[in-house]
Write a structure and sequence with these properties.
Number of domains: 2
Largest sheet: none
Number of helices: 5
CATH topology of the largest domain: Helix Hairpins
Strand content: under 5%
CATH superfamily of the largest domain: MazG-like
Radius of gyration: 21 Å
Number of strands: 0
Oligomer: single chain
Amino acid sequence: MQIRDYQQWLAAWDRARGWDRVSPSHTLVHALEELGEVARLLLQWEGYKQAASQEQLRADLEEELSDVFVFLFKLAYQTGVDVEAALARGQAKADGRHWDLDKANAELARYHARQAEALAQMVGGQNGRTDRDS
């Protein structure tokens, strides 16, 4: 299915149920609610919280991400945004901004170094204490 086709299908599906008459701000709140569910699942994905199983976690993530996309597509049709055209413009913007792969790789290396530093501070020394605790 093409992105534009999905956006048109969703608008018609909502219209048939009267759900197209919901305010865009409420649609955004619903999207944020679903995004919160994705955040909870990512905590499980990264091991911060216990997950039932990897298979169930992946299925749950798929479902919740789909819910987020539905509300974002709805918000787009409510505000007259053509998602397919917007994504094409975003792709061109990214290609223009991050064309130099050496710079992109250097930025990724800096990111990984900062993450390793942050983890080292969290783990700290004995009894989980960091230098800042002294």
